[in-house]
Amino acid sequence: MRNINEDTITQAVIAAMSDCENDRLRTVMTSLVQHLHAFAREVALTEAEWYAGIKFLKDTGHITDDKRHEFILLSDVLGLSMLVTAQNNAKPEGCTESTVFGPFFVDGAPALRNGSDISNGAKGTPCYVRGQVRGLDGEAVPEAVINVWQSDEEGFYDVQRPSESGQHEHRARARLLSDAHGNFSFRSILAMHYPIPHDGPVGALLWALGRHPWRPAHLHFMIEAPGYERLITHVFRKDSRYLDSDAVFGVRSSLIADWVFHESSPGADGEDEEFYTLDYDFVLNPSGAAN
Ligand code: BEZ
Ligand code: FE
After folding, report:
1. Residue 196 in contact with ligand 1 by CB distance below 6 A
2. Which letter does DSSP use for residue 286 in this model?
3. Is the Cβ–Cβ distance between 190 and 276 less than 8 Å?
4. How many angstroms separate the CA atoms of 59 and 79, rounded?
5. Is any atom of ligand 1 closer than 6 Å to the C-beta of 283?
6. Each residue of 54-88: pLDDT tens digit?
7. CATH architecture group of domain 70-284
8. Mutation test residue for ligand 1: of 71, 73, 156, the one with most atoms within 8 Å of CB
9. Average pLDDT over every residue of 28-37
10. Domain ranges of the chain
11. What ligand is nearest to the CA atom of residue 206?
């Protein structure tokens, strides 16, 4: 393998992988190399541009840790996360649609009873959420594990806030179980629109591209029950800004819901306080169902 030139390099790299015993890896890497080389040819990539790309990836790696998932953000803003979500989660009509997972899920959120206040000190206007988990034939799904997480009124998730104790403090996130009739309920705070983290390389890229970092207000849900496919989704506020320009392309019309405003109810201190309610049901796809 000598004197490889710009016309023969692609085939040479593909041939170099021919002994790979992992068929799927070989298929994926062959395609990746073909597309990467085609991209470099199509845009006539310069050496300076190649280096800028390498530096961008290096910076993305440097800022990444267990709490700051800059590579996921990159995938999100390039639409790759939503593409992979969409092509792996086709469901029959009537099922709740999936959308992006996002970088702010935390494993091991507190297990709380239905009706609990999940905010745990996160600031925002009170909001009461209730709904039912059903299967495609309308059957109630009892004991579904419902993970819910959201940002506070300033648009920050608990993991983005420094913790006083040094330990992660779970705020505005919880794990609930649907009851015998598939119902669930909790109190939380009103979801607000917020910008994805944009103080790193991905934010600089958005800025350079003339794009904004905002996401419309939403609640995240992950729902799991035996016999059904896991559902990862959001519910979006109908009156939110950015529904038509979500920085990560995650909005689905079927996931937009009405948060109903209520002028007052007696708050904990006896004062009247405004609150919102949201009713939203989820329909799970039975495992092994045809799409
Ligand atoms: C989120 O909704 O939490 C999210 C999704 C993608 C990128 C950043 C945040
Ligand atoms: Fe979010």
Report:
1. yes
2. B
3. yes
4. 20
5. no
6. 999 999 999 999 888 999 999 999 999 999 999 99
7. Sandwich (2.60)
8. 73
9. 98
10. 1-45, 70-284
11. 1
